[in-house]
Design a protein that fits this description.
The chain is α+β, with helices and mostly antiparallel strands and 215 residues long. It has helices spanning 3-8, 11-19, 100-107, 111-134, 140-150, 163-170, 174-186, 202-209; strands at residues 21-25, 30-32, 40-46, 48-54, 60-67, 71-72, 86-89, 93-99, 158-159, 190-193, 196-199. Helices cover 40% and strands 25% of the residues. It has a four-stranded antiparallel beta sheet with strand order 1-8-3-6. A four-stranded antiparallel beta sheet has the order 2-7-4-5. It has a three-stranded antiparallel beta sheet with strand order 9-11-10.
Length: 215
């Protein structure tokens, strides 16, 4: 979510700050585990959350990173209300937690509360669709190559996304995106500008992610 999108959200953040419980997590601290009861939703005020799966052999697979200005733990509205992934703090976090009944009562006062809450859910659905798509690529380099290729054409080679926005769409961390863009630039695949990336060699990018389908 970009800076403008975060600032555009007003009602739901205000409700969480007023009726929710302030929660702080240190980097690396567990927030919740898969299959545990989903009693609360969280509004991420500051920091970054990592969503991941833990396999029986102890292997962890990171699914995505969620930036500030988003809801976490929407499974609380499901039936049954159980966590479908694990989540921990990728950085130091400041969040507000609220149980579903309190959130629904708080939203009842104004129509705009519901509109904004639904918009946040819709945003997460869109991000989940992207994360599922990009999860088919094992290598982060393939994720970025596919993103850059599918957002350009032979005659329109500039991608006007920030590194934070690319990270949000692909499920990578911003640091991973930054390092890969620098690597791609050194290899002559792209050039960097202010809030934009220009693709210099689309076919070499295409070769990095193979024959998988793309948007």
């Amino acid at each position: 979510m970009g800076e403008r999108e975060v600032s555009a959200m007003h009602y739901i953040p205000a409700l969480f700050r007023r009726y929710g419980r302030l929660r702080r997590f240190c980097a690396g601290q567990q927030i919740f585990l898969k299959d545990s009861p989903a009693r609360e939703l969280y509004f991420l005020e500051r920091g970054k959350v990592r969503a991941y799966l833990l396999y029986p052999d102890g292997i962890e697979r990171t699914l995505c990173f969620v930036e500030r200005g988003n809801l976490i733990g929407e499974e609380a509205v499901g039936r049954p209300a159980v966590r479908i992934v694990c989540a921990d703090a990728a950085t130091d976090l400041l969040m507000y937690s609220m149980d579903l009944d309190t959130l629904l009562r708080a939203c009842a006062a104004e129509r705009e509360n519901w509109v904004e809450l639904l918009a946040l859910f819709m945003k997460k659905i869109e991000l989940l669709s992207s994360w599922i798509f990009y999860a088919q690529f094992i290598q982060n380099s393939a994720k970025l190559a596919c993103f850059l290729f599918s957002n350009t054409e032979e005659t329109h080679t500039a991608v006007h996304y920030t590194q934070e926005q690319i990270a949000a769409v692909t499920g990578m961390s911003r640091v991973s995106v930054s390092n890969l863009i620098r690597k791609f630039s050194e290899e002559g695949l792209v050039s960097q500008g202010y809030r934009s990336i220009r693709v210099l060699d689309r076919e070499r990018l295409r070769a990095l992610f193979g024959k998988q389908e793309f948007y």
